[in-house]
Amino acid sequence: MKPILLLAFFFVTASGFSQNLYYGNVSENGIPVPGASICVMNTSRCTTSDFDGNYAIEVKIGEQLKISFIGMKPKIIKVTSLNVQKNDQTVEPVLNDDYTNKLKKPTDSVKISEPSGIFDFSLWEGMGEGYLMKIDRSADGLYNLKYKSQYHKLSFEATQELVVSSPIRMPNYQKTYAQGKSQNGQLLYQSPETNEIFSWGPNINSLEYSGNPSEYYPQGNIVNKTLGNGNSVQLYNPNDFFKNTVDNKYLLNTQIEGSKGNFMKINFVYKTGRITIPTSRNNEIAASLKYFRNVSKYSKIETILSYDDFENNLPNSNFIVNKIVFANAITPVHFDNNFASTLTNGLQRSYAASENNPYYLILNDVDKNKSKTISFNFNHKYAKLKNSNIINTGFQSSEITNTNGQDFYFAGIAAPNFNKRTERFTNFSVSDVFNRTIDTHRFVETKIDFRFQERNLERNYFTGFTSPDDFPESGLNQNKINVVQQRFEIFYNANISYTFRDILSYYDELVLKANTNLNYSSTVKGKFMPNFLASAEIKRLFDEQLSFSISQSYNQVEPSLQNNNLNFNSLRYNVGQFKELHNNLELITPKNAIPTEEINTNLGLAYALNYQWNFSLTFYHKRVENLYVPNFNLNTVNWSPDVNYKQNGVEFEIQKTFYDRDFTYNFNLNFSHYKNKVISLNNNLDRIPFAGFADVNKSYIVGQPLGVIVGNGYLRDHNQNIIIGDDGFPIEDSEQKILGDPNPDFVAGFFNSFKYKKFTLNLSFDWSQGGEMWNGTQQTLNYYGKSEVTEKQRNITNYVFEGVKQGGSVNTKPVSFYDVNLPVEQNRWIRYGIDGVAEAGIEDATYFRLNSISLSYSNNPDYQLKKFNYTLSFFVNNVFILSKSKSAFSSNSMFSSLDSAGLDYFNAPMMRSFGSSLTIKF
Question: Which residues lie closer than 8 Å to 352 by C-beta, 6 or more apart?
């Protein structure tokens, strides 16, 4: 546990009052600690430190302040007359000389014994919560206090966390109709051998098993009733495919601390888990060694060595997770994928030759991810009087290996293919930070940072396999990528801060801060990138806890050398080509890259009421130029700085703390509203897709919000009436258009914490209002005849679509959604293709969620000194969700990529998690 360091205390008193306003700052190693709790002991008067670690609280002379923060040892301070200051001047006691002389007695009848020794400490120092171990007396008669911290200590911390998760918000499927379609006015069942992909066949109750088992149906092939053995056809729920997951985390910390504050800490973490797809697994092992030593009174060193090893047997780097979910969802309700995934002839066993069995995809999955990272950091800090200097050296080396591909018998692919991708990344840095505190009002800080980065990307792409035995690494064609990128950077930073006091009122402060950077990079155009930040904040306006701040910043940042998000490859394919998706293109940061520029302006207002209510309001304006996006050109892609946009927003926050003897209540309410717009696109472009598919995607469009959803819609007239065709169905517009804005109108969060004695209960809510999303999953399930919607609506007749005919008159033609006398391709859903009309898949993204509940018990909630401490916690995540969409969720992004949030195409299900953790310290 770390001690809290208290720096730069100021104290203010008012003549004639017994209450004093005590100002202070909480920091650790010179870094402010916001949110620390400061309480007057044995009272209900408490407050918390602000963002800069500052606080103010009403006290009486002689009272004690207890300062605490999670993970740190509490600090107790006694308020004495010598503490009370105004403008850094000590308020000395005023005594009358006559009174002083009266206290002097030249003679005394009592003989005073000689002292046994001397001491130079306050007796109060040894009274705090068991810190004092013994009192020593030296040979020359000097008494010293011996604290617990002056002895060598060995401590252990062990944590075990168990999380069980179950899938939620999954699609509702039809349970009535079999594989097949309409033919010659009848609904006919069609077996897997026919390669029929649709579930538009007869009612399953009209079918039964025969006496002839097959590799597809071991119970007997399906036939019409009265022609079989009388056994009803068994049904399978696609949602049963998904499994509950179990994740475990084991953590062990060991710390050896010396009497001079030196310590060595060893951390070991092991995690194991899986996603909801059967047989998936991931494992991670992490270890670190930290050593801290006080070299001298003014000098400290710290070193950290860490290692991380991660392995995942089912990453979604090649869209395999979405493909598995797709294959499971479209399977007819009476076909058992789990019985077998391979036929005796070696081919895939699926309900149709042109579709996949999800278990076959899992069994033949070659998508693997492994990564190893080792890092070392050395830090030396020297601090004396008003000067401090920190030297830091860091090194990191990582290797990431990915394999992925499409097996020989995968359905719907152009040809088998296999990728082997290895990326090695090395980062080395040296920095120096010098700080000089001029006085309590001013400081100057400079920093220089040298960095070297190297990225080595090797990728082999295999195709042209002549037989299954050649797969995966013996293809006739092999495309190799070998890219080595290096970057050398120098960052120079200077900071200055100046504080003015008593400007408009007696206790107010004006804090001016300036920060400037001049950065050099060997890979950026022009080689130099200037950055600056200027801010002004006036505190304690009108003798109230009221502050106003304004800041302006300008930053230039070049794109990272590493870009491991390959999901942009899906933009090369239409939704109907979903099974072909593979990520064979890379984004390479260009040489002489143009930096991305960002300008930020912030206005802030904060008010604290009675040291328990805290209000903050922030207005901001942001402008970004040269944002990097993927830009396709035939079969190549460039990482190009083409997007310029602006965003305005407001954020509001309320915090409240209530204290009683055994009960504490905290809540935080935050609100965010923003509007953004693409100002322009470089290179004479008017639209750039960046996530999704070629025909349905999120795009940057000039004059529109960021990431609007684009796709096809219904043909409309100039009054926006849907135009109805001669057959009575709406006409599809061949031109793509803007369908929705995924940006919410506002987002709000509400956090509550209840603490009673040794129990703590936390509840977290979030609310996102407005915005749209595309539910492509529902559209495709409608196409295959697998959705609950098609079960309920396929027999609707004499329906008249609202709209106008092509001549302009109101439509009055009735239609049947599924007329068995017509080809199945003309029914309500199949006529529009596998992705339907994208406009019909747009849904309201509004939701309200109880995000988490946690209950914990600690035998030592106040971090008192005990030999044995433990904390037991139980929690639930994604407790419930209220939304207009019953399955899609705007925060459940497609392909596990944040860029694709707001798009749903057979995304992995959301999970509701139940967990427990036990932490033991001794």
Answer: 179, 192, 194, 195, 196, 197
Q: Which residues of 168-180 are buried (b: 16+ CB within 10 A; e: fewer)?
A: ebbbebbebbbbb
- In angstroms, the CA 167 to CA 13 distance is 60
Q: Which of 583, 637, 636, 774 is nearest to 696 (CA)?
A: 774
Question: CA–CA separation, 35 vs 507, rounded Å?
Answer: 23
Contact partners, residue 806, CB within 8 Å, separation at least 6 = 723, 724, 725, 726, 731
Length of the chain counted residue by residue: 922
d(C-alpha 282, C-alpha 437), whole Å: 49
User: Whole-angstrom Cα distance, residue 164 to residue 912?
Assistant: 8
Alpha carbon of 494 to those of 18, 380, 384, 433: distances in Å?
44, 20, 20, 9
CB atoms within 10 A of CB 717: 12
- Rounded Cα distance between 446 and 497, Å, is 12
Closest by CA to 766, choosing from 669, 832, 867, 885, is 669
Rounded Cα distance between 915 and 919, Å, is 14
How deeply is 648 buried, as exposed, middle or buried, from its count of CB atoms within 10 A (0-12, 13-18, 19+)? Answer: middle
The model scores a pTM over 0.90: no
For residue 98, pLDDT beyond 60: no
**Residue 119 confidence (pLDDT):** 58
Q: Are strands 387-406 and 417-439 parallel, antiparallel or unpaired?
A: antiparallel
Residue 232 is classified by DSSP as: B
Helix or strand holding residue 858 (H, E): strand 847-858
Strand pairing class (299-312; 368-384) = antiparallel
End-to-end CA distance of the chain: 12
Q: Which is nearest to 36 in space by CA: 57, 59, 53?
A: 53
Question: Would you say residue 749 has pLDDT above 60?
Answer: yes
Mean pLDDT of 774-789: 97
CA-CA distance, 227 to 860, in Å (whole number)? 73
Q: Which residues pair with 604 in a beta bridge?
A: 549, 618
The DSSP bridge partners found for residue 124 are: none
Distance CA 557, CA 624 (A): 11
Q: Looking at the DSSP assignment, which residues form a beta bridge with residue 230?
A: none
At 854, which amino acid appears? Answer: S
Question: Are 214 and 372 in contact, with CB atoms under 8 Å apart?
Answer: no
Q: How far apart are CA 71 and CA 863, in angstroms?
A: 8
C-alpha closest to that of 178 among 832, 794, 831, 846? 794
Helices (H) and strands (E) in the chain, counts: 5, 50
- Determine the 3-state secondary structure of 684 from DSSP: coil
Query: Which pLDDT band, with edges at 50, 70 and 90, does 699 fall under?
Result: very high
Beta strands at 687-692 and 697-701: parallel, antiparallel or unpaired: antiparallel
Contact between 442 and 495 (Cβ < 8 Å):
no
Q: Are 711 and 697 in contact (CB under 8 A)?
A: yes
Nearest to residue 38, comparing CAs of 4, 13, 80, 15? 4
Q: What is the pLDDT of residues 112-148, one digit of tens each?
A: 455 566 655 555 555 544 455 566 666 666 666 666 6
Tell me, what DSSP letter sits at residue 143? Answer: E
Q: Is 533 within 8 Å of 515 (Cβ atoms)? A: yes
What are the tokens at 525? 């155009």
Question: Which runs of consecutive H residues, i.e. helices, occur in 349-395?
Answer: 358-363
Q: Quick check: 320 and 280 in contact, CB under 8 A?
A: no
